[in-house]
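WARN  no MSA supplied for this record, continuing single-sequence
INFO  ligand: beta-D-ribofuranose
INFO  echoing inputs
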Amino acid sequence: KKLLLIDVDCGTDDAQAIMMAIAAPNVHILGITCVEGNTPLDNVCKNVLRVLQLCNRLDIPVFCGADKPILGEAINASDFHGTDGLGDVPDPTAPGLELIQKEHAVSALNRIVSKHPEQISLVATGPLTNLALAVRMDSTFPKKLKTLYIMGGNMESRGNTTACGEFNFLADPEAAHVVLNEFTCKTYIATWEHSCRSKLPWEWYDQWVKRGTKKSDFIKKIYAHSMQYSRNNEKENKALVAGPGFVSCDAYAMAAAIDESTVTSVIDCAVTVEMCGKFTRGMMVLDLIDSLKKKNKALIMNGCDLEKFKTLMEALIK
Ligand code: BDR
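INFO  complex generated
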């Protein structure tokens, strides 16, 4: 089985990515680390536990990590994900924070990868703060990973939070900079534009959440707010990349980790992130002409096998 670590800022699409990994028979999840992002860190931890309870997988250890970016103040995405990060439909039976491991997420990342050097795939679906701190704690962290899958950044300067800033990179550009510049393992990046171009039709989404399973009911409930938000935006033609449809950003990075053949095309180049620009802070920069002379290149996902992706999405609600 593929060994997986998942670093999340658990909002609605992170929840789906976790459920996708749990449903995949070829994957063994070693732990889930939490980072402040879509919602404050306590909510992130609670949301992960809630998802694990739904899937009867509270045996997976959950670790609490960074509650702030490397510099500056945290931003969140409550307008999309709801104030609790999961669409504001609380579950009174959800487990409490006492189930979170005592060990800090950054220590846990280093400990776990040291135990399985070059065997672990790490999927990061939030700001990259924990990963940046992990490499500062132990500079050998990146080379002990097998593959890194990131949801974040943009390949054509389109933002979803500011004009040029995609949420995960904008939430901690310094951390993104450390990861993009210091991680030497094979690294896939599912950008904002890639996610938008891999949308599924709304008709597909509408029947997907109506399957009547416990998990499809959960998705329907937590997504009610954000999907209405997306559909309203589409009507106003706001931030519309590649036409209407359902986009679940974090699920594309997870799908790639579970089945690399969901990625049908990549752009192989060095990347970095803008940290200073007045309008461009957080924007990912593709060095297509190799001007930075960087050794470590990233694989920018540039095509998704939607039939295979749908199969993984179907599996997660069963
Ligand atoms: C990313 O930002 C978050 O709101 C989503 O969970 C996803 O990780 C998309 O830009």
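The mean pLDDT is 96.
INFO  checksum written, moving to next record
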